[in-house]
Amino acid sequence: MAHPEAGKLSPEVINVHHFRREFEAPSEPLARVKFGTSGHRGRLGAGFSRRHAEAIAQAVARVHAERGIKGPVLVGGDTRLVSAETAEACAEVLAGNGLNVLLADIPVPTPVFSLEILSGRAAASLNGTASHNPPGDMGLKYNPPSGGPAGAEFTSVIEKYANWCLEDPNIIRRLPLSKAKAQGLVTVPDLVGPYLKRLAEVVDLEVIKSSGLSIGVHPLGGTSIPFYEGLRKSYGLKNLKIVDKTVDPTFGFIPRDHDGQIRMDPSSPYPMKPLLELAEAGKYDFVGASDPDADRFGVATKAAGLFSPNQALCVLAAYLLDNRPNWPSTLAIGRTIGTTHLLDRIAAAKGRSCEEVNVGFKWYVDGIRQDRYLLAGEESAGLSVYRWTAEKDGILAVLLLAEAMARSRKDLSELYRELTAVHGSPTYRRVDAAIDEAQRQKIKSMNAASLAGLKELAGEKVTRLRDTDGLKIYLEDSWLLARLSGTEPIAKLYGETFKGPEHLDRLLKEGGALFGLQV
Fold it and tell me: Taking a C-beta distance cutoff of 8 angstroms, is the pair 293, 109 a contact?
């Protein structure tokens, strides 16, 4: 049966030839380069084209020259339509500027770029990906020597230089790929072996293997396929099966998301439907998925169904606290501003701190590099752990959760219930509300100072306010956060309470009214 929204979709969603033409010769004026939390992204054509890729690569080459950044740049991408072409375009420009390039010959997970930088094998990277966005989108992400998402100290300059290149393409220097390879400027690295070797040092693969746990994984048409295959072949994880190895840049085999769009989001029940059906049928004890660039995760079991990212983070935090005795006892748990506060209670019970950061994994980079976190996670299904990558890693997340289930011999839902029995059971919801410009300006103008007189909300005392990323109101056993979307006319209202579903309804209703939103 067709999705109820399917008729609203443009046929361009699966028109490969159209999007290839648009990448090479956009039919509309080019959008300016603008870096968000994960690089520059846009619709293939005016939003992202070969010219955007070349301009960003030229900007990166200039930044490296100005800042004295030495060493090769790792260039690659995911399984999207023009990822290979984007990578090759970037390699030609970087080589044209005299930089050494490590050009991937397979699709590459986002965390692998970070690992290569942190290992010292690469100095920086350019990654062609738009994560789990619809198939007609494309993007390019830069990782500096820190190994994590680039901060404003890099992106603001790259944006400026890249936009100059869009205005004057003569600035761009290129060296054809064949000549660059002949001159030794472009080489092809092994990316699977080093990643799996390090992964085996962080995840107890023997526990997973010997448990007999039946594991099904779905790469959602993405970059993780050869990495999961390597775990089976090189590390003997025969109880792990890849349930679908399809690689199709239209991603037409992925069930449509709630709005009728194709979106390869492993935390959504819609694209995860085939995997959930396998779990519900009891074919596997545990199923996991990662999105096309493998930086986000989704997991499910027959008993738990689709486990929410917040639940998964809590189970994993508690598991690591109990099962990594050699890790320093001073390590903190990190969570983003919209992530469950159950993590705070889990940390406090073990004498640990819980650090709150703004949305975006870039806010974790310094702490990860300083070995400060046991676990750093976000409610949008991303995480990293102690001495791991400065990027989110969906492969790692799936395997660590499988390890927790294998060692405990308990379902994820049982592990979560044990936590809530001790620390309280949170009720969490995010509401996306459409807004007009007047509402946007109202919310944008609100800050901690403007709400300084707010003493109570939903029957609870206000204990604190934070306005570093949206506006968050902390209550005694609850919290509310309002944030504006950077790309859509939407306000995101997050709420969590330890007082039950009815109290959450009240919190969101009263909180929504405070921000001029009807919830």
Answer: yes
The model carries a pTM of 0.94
What's the CATH code of the domain at 475?
3.30.310.50
Tell how far CA 239 is from the center of its chain. Answer: 27
* 480 in the same domain as 401: no
140, 171, 189 — which closes off a domain? Answer: 189
Structural domain for 443, as ranges: 427-514
pLDDT tens-digit profile of 98-122?
Answer: 999 999 999 999 999 999 999 999 9
Radius of gyration for the alpha carbons in the chain, expressed in angstroms and rounded: 23
- And the tokens for 446? 């609100």
Residue 2 included in any domain: no
Residues written for the chain: 519
* pLDDT for position 519: 83
Number of structural domains the chain divides into: 3
Tell me whether strands 427-434 and 456-457 are parallel, antiparallel or unpaired.
unpaired
Query: Percent of the chain having pLDDT more than 90?
Result: 92
What DSSP line would sit under 453-503, residue for residue? Answer: T--EETTEEEEEEE-SSSEEEEESSEEEEEEE-SSSSEEEEEEEESS-HHH
Query: Known catalytic residues?
Result: 131
pLDDT for 286-301, tens place per residue?
999 999 999 999 999 9
Cβ neighbors of 458 (< 8 A, separation 6 or more) are 475, 478, 497, 503, 506, 507, 510, 511
